[in-house]
Amino acid sequence: MRFRKLVTVGINESSIDASHWKQIDSLAEERISLTDGSNIEEHLKDADCILVDPFAFKVDKNVIDMAPKLKYIGDSLTAYGKIDTEYAKSKGIIVSNVPGYSTESVAEFVFAIILESIRQLEKGKDAAREGDYSGLGFSLTEIKGKKFGIIGLGRIGSRVAEIASGFGADVMYWSRNRKPELEAKGIKYDDVERMISECDFLSLHLAQTKDTENFLNEDRMQKIKKNSIVINTAPMELVDIGALERRLMNGDMIFILDHSDEMKKDDLARLSKFDNCIIYPAIAHITKEAKMARQEIFVKNIENFLKGSPTNRVN
Amino acid sequence: MRFRKLVTVGINESSIDASHWKQIDSLAEERISLTDGSNIEEHLKDADCILVDPFAFKVDKNVIDMAPKLKYIGDSLTAYGKIDTEYAKSKGIIVSNVPGYSTESVAEFVFAIILESIRQLEKGKDAAREGDYSGLGFSLTEIKGKKFGIIGLGRIGSRVAEIASGFGADVMYWSRNRKPELEAKGIKYDDVERMISECDFLSLHLAQTKDTENFLNEDRMQKIKKNSIVINTAPMELVDIGALERRLMNGDMIFILDHSDEMKKDDLARLSKFDNCIIYPAIAHITKEAKMARQEIFVKNIENFLKGSPTNRVN
Hints:
The structure is a homodimer. Chain A is α/β, with parallel strands linked by helices. In chain A, 36% of the residues lie in helices and 18% in strands. In chain A, the strands form two sheets. Chain A has a seven-stranded parallel sheet with strand order 8-7-6-9-10-11-12, sandwiched between helices. Chain A has a five-stranded parallel sheet with strand order 2-1-3-4-5. In chain A, strand 3, helix 3 and strand 4 form a beta-alpha-beta unit. In chain A, helix 5 (103-118) packs across helix 7. The longest helix of chain A is centred in the C-terminal third of the chain and has 19 residues, at 288-306. The first copy, chain A, is elongated and about 65 Å long. In chain A, 46% of the residues are buried. The model of chain A has no long low-confidence stretch (mean pLDDT 96). At the A-B interface, helix 5, helix 6, helix 7, strand 12 and helix 13 of A face helix 5, helix 6, helix 7, strand 12 and helix 13 of B.
């Protein structure tokens, strides 16, 4: 079985390689690729499949109503907050997303940026380039034996926990749900407030919801252990930026983030001023392996829908 | 029991902290601290203990003969090649060294410098500082699932193997002796030539001996897998520098080293020219934890000798 008319919206041509486009094209009689929603109505009239980058184009009730023949919405990423999945469901339209493709990419990145900081690698490379190989003037620490707290033990948090265990850290977590399979590996469940005040490393892996916004509020921010390192590869909506600024001013902790979840320019500018706030571009989740896995899952979802056994449904 | 006269040679005052100096001083009636071997003869005449940095001062037959009352030589580091341990033994003098203090420091450093490279962190920080948070133009990879070869499975190599397993790499090793306890954890013993030609990451952890000098010779250097990363935190005597230069010229692999084992200036200058040769100062083994452990073991060795149960003997 194939789709009659497949419409892609906001999917950057280069984010899918030629061989995966070829696979997609084999799954539909016709493909229309749109960069955004202009003139979309005429294309949706007879579309039975939409593939979408939800950050580039919002699939709301109005869009769904434009496509009376629609059967499947393929989200090219993990987040699906911008797709009205409930309304789609009411119309019998299945929505699938691409979860977990960047689990390893982000988990390894957490250790990359921790180690870069605690081993002063940038300073080291600079010194060597200037011909100073002495190693004098460095103040370096280890992960082993340190309290390593993980807030949010989903896919990524779980992998961070496992890798931290490999380093010999004293790993603890707090999450909405207990994870017995990780507790069996020595990852301890702990009180979130105590973790914040006692951990040497604190890595945030909560999903962004109304409950988790500003999770690191003024009170918790002030409680963060002195000389600790806090890592956020999750959305910065988890963090009260003003509270973070006030804590950074004390100069007694380091905050490291990546910009993979877009921040307000103003917030970025405010945080960039601090030497103890290390900001990376959106590189946490874009290893070659993650990019490849994303495409494979994305295409597989379409194939599986057509075979009658949809995968990674979110509605 | 205490020593009557304890002489330290070449031990930088600041490399031992005040509390450890205090402990050392409680173990001898008198302490003389010399920066080098000048006028040493008069001080050794009645010394029953020498504490030495073997890189700063060589304890040869001649020196040992200057000290007829000598009972104990305390090496402040791991290497003891510059102490004539056999001759000391023939005179009933016990030599102890400080092994293993930097195991964790070096093992974690291996992952720090691998991840710094495969996640292009320096480029990332630079881009963010210039206001480019897009993550465009990066080419990043993961450790998970890659062939990770460890050459030399001593203390450090073993920890590197365990951490690499935590990352989910396909870990293999070659060593003089098989290590069943690590094989039980899934670390596979393999043929060294095959490892060199197949591994994506290759970390050298051999001790420097006549047999291991120029281990990475012309032939092996040419066999190293394309697009792999070779890490050497062991002495650079393991590597034929000319052969490395010739391979680096191909631009199809990355070599990362730290300068903790001193190299010839000329060799450093030759290697610094290559973008695909990343050189760090002597920072692999100097975490705070390692520095502290070194002092503790060093002092404990002296105490244990005095108690009649010497530890970390090398003769």
